[in-house]
Amino acid sequence: MFRNQYDTDVTTWSPAGRLFQVEYAMEAVKQGSAAVGLRSKTHAVLGAVNKAASDLASHQRKLFRADQHVGVAIAGLTADGRVLSRFLRNECINHSFVYESPLPVSRLVVQLADKAQVCTQRSWKRPFGVGLLVAGLDETGAHLYYNCPSGNYFEYQAFAIGSRSQAAKTFLERRFQEYDTYSREDLIKDALFAIKETLQGEKLTAQLCTVAIVGEGEAFHIIDQQTIQEYIDAMELSTGGPDEEAAAAAPPSAEAQEGGEGASSEPAPMDI
Amino acid sequence: MELQLSMVDGSVCMKDSAKSEISSERTLYPYVTGTSIIGMKYKDGVILASDTAGSYGSTLRYKSVERIKQVGDHTLIGASGEISDFQEIMRYLDELILYDKMWDDGNSLGPKEVHNYLNRIMYNRRNKFNPLWNSLVLGGVKKGQKYLGTVNMIGTHYEDDHLATGFGNHLARPILRSEWREDLTFEEAVKLIEKCLLVLLYRDRSSINKFQIAKITDEGTTIFPPYALKTFWGFSHFQNPSKGAAGTW
After folding, report:
1. Strands lying side by side in the sheet with A35-39
2. Which ranges of the sequence are coiled-coil (chain B) (predicted)?
């Protein structure tokens, strides 16, 4: 993607019918560290890679609970993600207050998408630079959605976003057909495996990742590190190596002054 | 609190809505009213019953008022109190159900959600000293779960296996407390309801001998056409009522 004369304003169309600012916002999501989501009929799992900027620092929070029955994983500008998480929490609690009943996930993501769309049609705003994986449970079952900066949203059985997410997607593509009947434990294992795929050779430990689950009889919560480490040990993972080629398939950006992704394990700068 | 342009000096000032001159006055008393509603759960769902009278003070002015209405696919609502406020409530609820249907996404508002929404409206109006002068009973079934709740003009709300409003609380509830069971069939439930309705007919001066029963189950809603109950006035005490005091009426 190169600079051109139609990419200054979000309210300027290109002759080809594109809004470049929106597309650049989607690039920001691709630069964030990975997040994965998968669901069965009764449970939905979210996972994220947590890399701290240095050993001295703590890592960025990427998983947020919106309500007892809904949570999100974010990739991209974490600050934008926090603001949207606050919006989600507000919408959920408003609905609960008026109807004493959890807000259906499909309606929540529509409200979120409409909010994102507004920022693509105001000259004094900019699109949110964060992609959200929304996982939740309502009376129609477990759901997983992906909300883009563009204001689009899609429902998925399984998905991954952020840097090196293609490796995770390749893994999920091979397995997703069975997910409807998976047990919650198998879902968690597959989420961890998908996260491992994005790490490109680095050893997966419970310190590096966060996993959350929501399901029937189970409120949205982040699974504690010890349990995650047990899952990892049970999977007998050491230094497994995903495809280098798949990781390098992410589109290179010419003006990547932030420092390319490459094979280094530095956290994506936008996450800080 | 409302911002109003003061006529005297043209400046914008805050005026308490309780003493507003430009907007309409708040509710002080009801005009056309309905009397009791009785509701109870039974084996397959929920039954609501009422008479079809609209009183204008002590006059039995309107005799064909439908005080039980359907709200969406899963809920029935019965209202006592000011009939015009009930019509306003129906407008709010019909709009709510319409927007819910417009989502068209497999989710729907059940009786619990409608009840809570209504409670929010009633309580908010009460706080503004402008209540909707009603006591309402909401009954419904969603996914096999039976629901029966009540909410009134001051925002008090609760659920139970059998409920009533107005005089029904005093005359019908005691009968229901001793004779209601979880597994009543529809016919048994109607008999029990008719027993309550009869007591109300005898003892509530705002009631008339024209009743409506409505039932709601997982299969759907039915509001039955109005009918009358057999009454008996042949008590010896009522024969020759002025025997003890000739010349009275």
Report:
1. A158-161, A35-39, A43-49, A209-215, A218-222
2. none
- Residue type for A35, please? A
Q: Which residues in chain B touch residue A97, judged by CB atoms under 8 angstroms apart?
A: 120
The pLDDT tens digits of the residues spanning B75-126 come to 999 999 999 999 999 999 999 999 999 999 889 999 999 999 999 999 999 9
Task: Point out the residues of B that are catalytic.
Answer: 27
Q: Which of B103, B105, B113 sits opposite A100 (nearest CB)?
A: B113
d(CA B39, CA B173): 10
Closest CA to B114 of B88, B87, B96, B131: B96
End-to-end CA distance of chain A: 24
Chain B nearest-CA distance from A110, in A, is: 10
Q: Provide the 8-state DSSP code for A203.
A: P
Strand partners, B138: B77, B149
**Number of CB pairs, chain A paired with chain B, less than 8 A apart:** 32
Coil, strand, or helix at residue B153?
Answer: coil
| A11 CB neighbour count, 10 Å cutoff | 13
CA distance B49 to B78: 8
A111 close to B (CB below 8 A) = no
Q: A99 vs chain B: nearest CA distance in angstroms?
A: 4
Predicted structure pTM score: 0.83
Distances (CA, A) of A7 to A129, A131, A268: 16, 20, 24
Please name which of A201, A266, A202, A203 lies closest in space to residue A229, comparing C-alpha atoms: A203
